[in-house]
Amino acid sequence: MHRFSHAGRRAAHLTMFTCLLSCVTAIAPRPVAAQGAITSNAFNPALSLILDGKYTNYSRDPRDYQISGVLLGEEAGLPSRGLSLGETELAASANVDDKFYGQVTLSISDNDEKTDLNVEEAFVQTTTLPQGLTARAGKFLSDIGYQNSKHSHTWDFADQPLVYRALLGEQFGDTGVQLKWVAPTALFVELGGEAFRGSEFPASGAGHDGVGAYTAFAHLGGDVGDTHSWRAGVSYLDTDAVNRESTLPSDDIVAFTGQSRVWIADAIWKWADHGNPKTRNFVLQGEYLRRKESGNLATRLATAAYDGTQSGFYVQGVYQFMPRWRAGVRYDRLSADNTVGPLPIATPLSDDRDPSRVTAMVDFSNSEFSRLRLQLADDRSRARSDRQLILQYVFSLGAHGAHQF
Asked: Residue 14 pLDDT > 90, yes or no?
């Protein structure tokens, strides 16, 4: 039997390896030059799982929660007392081919009665449109404002600002289309618009044959030296509501039919020690929202005309004072000017107080994939103050794309 020499076997192995490498190179997909942070490969999608858990305690009954001056959306209440599983998020994303990118995000929430599985986002997006254009279609969080498009595990506090909870029902997202343009300039300039089905708060009922909400937004941003960066913007949301239901603490249901329009101004300033955010950094962020609604309110027994203007703001500062450790303070305030016809039941729309809240938090991140947080708040959304305590963990498993600025 013929045997190879040691040198002959090594030459044969090298030849086989060269042939194999040539074959793999020939069939391997070419990398797609995606925009922004989109870098996933179509044959190797990025998969991630976000685990979110909480312990909450309140000085007042969370089942009686309401905000003076507004009718809340279905998801704008408080979590139950005690231990709870927050919003678990499962996401997958990848380049579809050389022109499209796709992403789906499922949220799993557990309450006292059942476990809900919801599609938070499921969209396709272009990657090769010319002149800085990007188009998106599917279900996604709108790019209005600053906080709205951020997933809950990226929030700097355990909950949304009061004004988001009151006027946007936590955050606005729906099924629709988006067109966005980024200018080819040193200064960051972004313009965009969206059209949605109009089935999510503050819209409802998918009016106008299923196109019942529109947005427009503009954002500017840039750097100041090596240590500072900023972004500011204005946004507009125009929606139609058809029998948009709100459940009161008394279990009565009030349905609103009419037009709801929201204006937003946002700004954020970031500082990093010598340009390195891993050691020390500070973020100052704020938004002002104003909503105008006009139409009719209906209960089981009566209908009344309704015209309301609600506005509010939040401002927050978060300081990473040493690696892994951050502390933050947030202040929220709302006001309302509502005119409501006679109804047989009392609603928060007739309350004349201005809700406010002060929140403080401290959190520890052992790595970019884990975070533990303690949060305390004095919430004056109702007649009497509610002292709130939240202990939270957020863990990230798997690949997860870079977050927006």
From this structure: no
